[in-house]
Amino acid sequence: EGRVTWVERSHGSFFRSFGLPETVDPEGISAAIKDGVMTVTVPKRSQEPKPAAKEIHIEG
Question: In this predicted model, what pLDDT tens digit does every residue of 12-21 receive, in sequence order?
Fold first, then answer.
């Protein structure tokens, strides 16, 4: 699936914000720092089940 790599260099504190599409699961977002590299994982929402077809009897 799609991966995005964003490279920035700075020292000290920093702030970054960006918009996310509605297909993102905000409860599943996580971030980790290892060896000075921050990795942010932004999962997609699970697909909602499609409604099942229903037969309706028409009287008359």
Answer: 777 778 888 8
